[in-house]
Design goal:
homodimer, alpha/beta, Aspartate Aminotransferase, domain 1
Chain lengths: ~375, ~375
């Protein structure tokens, strides 16, 4: 069964990555595999735009990366300011409050970015230990400008956690330049690797914070002080690393760097522009203002021609009759928008044409 | 690079499983993939010996499975009795205490099983919410008889958590017959699938407990009430399932069931017996009494011929010159024993002969 995956992830995976995935196994402490781990860490640092030593592929999906960032930096009773403009900002609030964090929400309408002044005001007022927000909101297709919020966080002396799930490997991520203390992503979006791992990165300041906690991290599995034993110099056993997935990620990162980050971003922007123009001709309208659109994932208001046929039925027909997956709306946007991902390997104008052609067949 | 993986896991993966891993991706909500999820759940139930609806592949490794069992069933301040006779019993104590559990330890010497009377006494005295122990202690090679402890737990009205990481798919696991409330395993041992997922199973009583908690599970990622949305009837999004790994696990489970659980256990027992006999001829002696040996993983005291050459050097030579991985001792047993895994696909007498032949070359 062949699928073109133009939803919010996973995206299609290049043949080279599938072949890497299918390599005969190595042990998780085999020097030959540890060389792969080394390479993954070096490449992730470059793609994250950081020199953070603690940059590694966490052995779980992106949502666990979110949890790892928050549960290592927060202790019960700590204040945290969270920017909420979609499902993943909401999720951060839920994760933080389960850890025992006292959450202050800064909200924006879904489909718009956070107001940096509102974030600055909340940070200055609450003086939280951590502020967290989403770079690329997968539920709305908004790309959040990072610098103004980061500047305000520096002024308030607040550590920043950034969700880069749908930006890493697609558009520029520059953790060190921005001054981000902890960031997480997923493998199945712009990196075009199967889902299962969460690339994460922590600054030296974040690691100092973790080391000076008054009580241990609630999660043994996600505790960075323990993970540092395997992902640092010593390479000692903590848990069994997902050998095949890490090997596949290594190949996916090689492909990203062979293309180059700038060329890759350009390709994502061109594909998204083609999508908006081509589907505009079919009556789809972008939800997000041009200045804040997220090239890897475009949210489109549905035209009458789709709504009258039932948007879920049209998506099902795209999948069953044309082998094309697109994403429905999430949360408040369910039934009102589609989310079309042109991520990583899939960010190509020819894929836009294939989607448009299938839609014309269904709607005509 | 080709390796024969005779350590404590991962084990080698059959070609069919590697091919499944390398299939082009499906979306995690694609009906074609949800059929794979269904099949995995049905097969896992049979292999776990249970009718538990909440039987599923958790999207992280076995250690996260341990954490999922304990963090869903325990609330801060709850008592838990833990059997400790090796690294993984120790890990259970650490995980439980980070969750806020009040841990009562019942210890046994490493290389011996837990005393059921001591477990019964502790459960009767402490009246904990949960008791937890390891079926197959990967650090010592002890197979713990489950029934006597399970009977005592029933009498005390205590819920039981069982570590089946190195037993599931190799030797008999019968959760319902034994009366186990929560169990976890890993994919990379006797199931001969790459590491990355943790098969888990929870009884209806365990799920009632989770639903009647006074506060939410600390981990959003591992919260069973949320996972039930995806792994139950509704199939709604929680996190992005690791599509490729789940597809590979499905193929691995098919292979297990094609062989049959009884035939598979017989093969594991025959391979372990051959190992002990053949390496006995080279001076290796089993650490564990015959009645408690764990067929998938044998712990062997090292002969002088290995100790004088440096056991780590001999293991390195096995790996570099012969492509064979065996495991060193863990924790208290480091430097004193080897752990030889004959797990899943690798549980074959011919692999024993290949190991013995390589050892003869090195030692002679």
């Amino acid at each position: 069964m062949s699928r073109m995956l133009l939803g919010p992830g996973p995206s299609n995976v290049p043949e080279r990555v599938l072949q890497a995935l299918a390599q005969p196994l190595l042990g998780h402490l085999d020097p030959a595999f540890l060389a792969v781990v080394d390479e993954v860490q070096v490449r992730l640092r470059r793609i994250f735009g950081t020199e953070n030593a603690m940059t590694l592929p966490l052995s779980a999906t992106g949502s666990a990366g979110m949890e790892a960032c928050l549960c290592n930096l927060l202790e019960p009773g700590d204040d945290v300011v969270v920017g909420v403009a979609g499902v993943f900002g909401e999720r951060m609030c839920e994760v933080a409050s389960r850890i025992g964090g006292r959450v202050t929400r800064v909200e924006a309408e879904w489909g718009t970015p956070l107001d940096p002044d509102a974030m600055a005001e909340a940070m200055a007022r609450v003086r939280p230990r951590v502020a967290a927000f989403v770079h690329a909101e997968t539920s709305t297709g908004v790309c959040q400008p990072v610098e103004p919020i980061a500047a305000a966080a520096r002024e308030a002396g607040v550590m920043l956690v950034l969700d880069c799930v749908t930006s890493l490997g697609g558009i520029r991520v520059s953790l060190d330049e921005w001054g981000i203390d902890a960031a997480y992503s997923g493998t199945q979006k712009c990196l075009s690797c199967p889902p299962g791992l969460s690339p994460v990165s922590f600054s030296a300041r974040a690691m100092q914070r973790v080391q000076s906690r008054s009580q241990p991290v609630q999660s043994w599995y996600l505790d960075l002080t323990l993970l540092a034993g395997y992902f640092g110099q010593e390479r000692v056993y903590h848990h069994t690393a997902p050998v095949s997935m890490v090997t596949a990620l290594c190949e996916a990162l090689r492909i990203v760097e062979e293309e180059g980050l700038e060329a890759r971003e350009r390709r994502h922007r061109e594909a998204a522009a083609a999508l908006i123009e081509t589907l505009g001709g079919l009556g789809f309208e972008p939800l997000v203002d041009e200045a804040y659109r997220l090239p890897p994932l475009t949210t489109l208001r549905l035209p009458e021609s789709i709504l009258t046929r039932g948007e879920a039925d049209v998506r099902r027909s795209l999948l069953d009759d044309h082998g094309i997956e697109v994403g429905g709306g999430l949360g408040k946007l369910a039934g009102r928008v589609w989310r079309v991902g042109l991520m990583g390997h899939n960010a190509r104008v020819e894929n836009v044409e294939r989607l448009a052609s299938a839609l014309r067949t269904i709607v005509s």
